[in-house]
Known about the structure:
Blueprint: H1 6-21, H2 37-53, E1 58-64, H3 68-74, E2 80-85, E3 96-99, E4 108-117, H4 128-134, E5 135-145, H5 156-161, E6 166-171, H6 176-179, E7 187-192, E8 195-201, H7 209-221, E9 232-237, E10 242-243, E11 249-254, E12 260-264
Parallel strand pairs: 1-9, 3-12
Antiparallel strand pairs: 1-2, 4-5, 4-9, 4-10, 5-6, 7-8, 7-11, 11-12
Amino acid sequence: MSASNPVIRSLAERLDSAMRDGAPIPHFSVSDSVNTLADAYAVQMEWTAMRTARGEKIMGRKIGLTAKAVQEQLGVDQPDYGTLWQSSFFEAHDGKVTVPAADFISPRIEGEVAFLIGKSLNRPNITPADIIDATEACALGVEIVDSRIADWKIKFFDTIADNASYGGFTLGPWDRKLRDADLAAIGMTISQNGTQVAEGTGAAVLGSPAISCAWLANKLQAFGVSLEPGDVVISGALMKMIPFTAGDLFVFDLAGQPALAVTIA
Length: 265
C-alpha cells in the first residue's frame, strides 16, 4: 500500500480517534493487511501528518523494542521508532514533574538516555561515533509508553503504526559531560512509591544508547528523513516498563545526574 491509499488514511484516523477519545481499538495488522514495514510506517507518518496539520510540533524521535526479550516476544529482530509530539512533552522543574494519568489509555513508564542532536546527520552509514560527535548533550529521559491497541495485544506492525506505542515524555537537565560518559555501562534505577522496582544499564539498549541512535539515523534515511540540530532522541529503555496509576510517585536515578521525581496525578 502507498501512503495515498485510503486504508492508510483510515487506520491513521482510527488511531487518532482512539487517542483523543481514550477508547482503544483491536489490532489491525492482519485484518487490514498492514503486514509490511512500509505499510506500518506509512500509517504512522500519515497520523503524524494529520496532527501537524492541526498544529502539532515534532520535537524528535523515540526508539522502541531495543530489548532483546521484547523483540523475541513479538518475533522480530529489530527495533522500531516513533515521533515525539510536543503536546505530550511534560517539562520538569527543579527535578520534579507531574504527569496526568487521564491523558493515557493503558500507560507504562520507563527510563532512558536522551540525546540532543547538535549537527545534521543527513548522510548514510551513520556510526555510534558519528552520533556522539553530532550530539550536543545527553540527559535522563523518561518515556510514558501507551497503546491505542486494546489490552496491549500488539503485533510488530501494530506498534509501528501506533507511533511505536508512544504516549509522552519528560527530561532531566541536559549535560554535555554525559555525552562523553560510557553510555553502555551507565546505570539507572527506578523507585515507585519509595520502593526500588527496576534497574538497568545502557548495555540493555542494543549494547549502548549510541548504537540505538545510530540505528535510528540510518533507518530514517530510508524514509527520506534525517536527524537535525535541535532534535531530541530518546534511545530505548534501560529496564522493564512499569504500569502506573494516579497517585504513584516515581524517582528516576541515572548515574551522575540529578534525580527526577515523576508524580502521576
